[in-house]
């Protein structure tokens, strides 16, 4: 089933380094981030498969992976619909993240851990670099890696998985608009400032920055900013 010109997405080609399922999922995440795939729209696996030049099976498998993350939902006999996040959804996700991440990160502040925090600086810089060149997928990947690695220092694997899931559900929405408004750099640089505060043992400053960082992201991504 060949896609019509108006339905065709600007999707990247897939190669052989990863499984087709992984590559398709990665490409679809990129399409979500850049706004190529729009919330509320139903996408057919065979149509997407034709654009990728692969069979429909790895596309369906990739879509099911995204469905487990809450990014799309299956529509019986039609395909998959990109999940829409309401302001209430964003508020609730933000509240959970704030309750978990803010105090956890603040407790990590310790001059004695300065060398460990410095090991995260290259990742924080990757976030900034990705923001500068408008590499939205690179930004998301580096941002998730930074926060997961930082929270891992608390030694609670279950907490890390909860936060990973929350970030996947919220991170993909509104990023292209954020970049278009020139607001992505401000959010990116907050990661470097956080490392400075943690390395200085400033728990209060770290808590304040993390709280502001999460609220900052919530406000600029929502349709009705706080």
Brief digest:
By secondary structure, the chain is mostly helical. It has helices at residues 20-34, 45-52, 56-68, 87-108, 114-118, 121-133, 136-152, 157-171, 175-180, 184-199, 203-221, and strands spanning 42-43, 72-75, 79-82.
Explain the layout of strands and helices.
Blueprint (H helix, E strand, L loop, with lengths): L19 H15 L7 E2 L1 H8 L3 H13 L3 E4 L3 E4 L4 H22 L5 H5 L2 H13 L2 H17 L4 H15 L3 H6 L3 H16 L3 H19 L5
Helix pairs in contact: 1-3, 2-3, 4-8, 4-11, 6-7, 6-10, 7-8, 10-11
Structure description:
The protein has 226 residues and is mainly α. The protein has 2 domains: 20-82, Winged helix-like DNA-binding domain superfamily/Winged helix DNA-binding domain (Arc Repressor Mutant, subunit A); 87-221, Four Helix Bundle (Hemerythrin (Met), subunit A), CATH 1.20.120.530. It is 66% helix and 4% strand. The protein contains 11 helices and 3 strands, in the order H-E-H-H-E-E-H-H-H-H-H-H-H-H. The chain has helices at residues 20-34, 45-52, 56-68, 87-108, 114-118, 121-133, 136-152, 157-171, 175-180, 184-199, 203-221; strands at 42-43, 72-75, 79-82. Strands 1-3-2 form a 3-stranded antiparallel beta sheet. Strand 2 and strand 3 (79-82) form a beta hairpin. Helix 1 (20-34) packs across helix 3. It is elongated, with a radius of gyration of 19 Å. The N and C termini lie far apart (44 Å). The model has no long low-confidence stretch (mean pLDDT 85).
């Amino acid at each position: 089933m060949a896609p019509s010109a108006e339905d065709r997405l600007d999707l990247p080609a897939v190669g052989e380094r990863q499984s087709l399922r992984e590559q398709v999922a990665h490409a679809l995440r990129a399409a979500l981030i850049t706004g190529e795939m729009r919330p509320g729209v139903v996408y057919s696996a065979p149509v997407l498969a034709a654009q990728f030049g692969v069979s429909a099976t790895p596309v369906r498998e990739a879509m099911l992976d995204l469905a487990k993350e809450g990014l799309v939902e299956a529509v019986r006999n039609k395909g998959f619909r990109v999940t829409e996040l309401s302001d209430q959804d964003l508020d609730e996700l933000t509240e959970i993240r704030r309750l978990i991440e803010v105090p956890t990160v603040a407790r990590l502040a310790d001059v004695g851990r300065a060398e460990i925090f410095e090991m995260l600086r290259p990742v924080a810089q990757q976030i900034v670099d990705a923001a500068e060149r408008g590499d939205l997928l690179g930004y998301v990947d580096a941002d998730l890696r930074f926060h997961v690695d930082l929270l891992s220092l608390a030694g609670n694997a279950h907490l890390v998985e909860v936060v990973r899931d929350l970030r996947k559900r919220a991170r993909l929405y509104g990023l292209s608009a954020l970049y278009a408004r020139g607001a992505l750099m401000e959010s990116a640089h907050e990661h470097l400032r956080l490392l400075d505060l943690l390395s200085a043992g400033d728990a209060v400053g770290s808590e304040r920055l993390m709280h502001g960082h999460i609220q900052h992201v919530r406000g600029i991504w929502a349709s009705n900013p706080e």
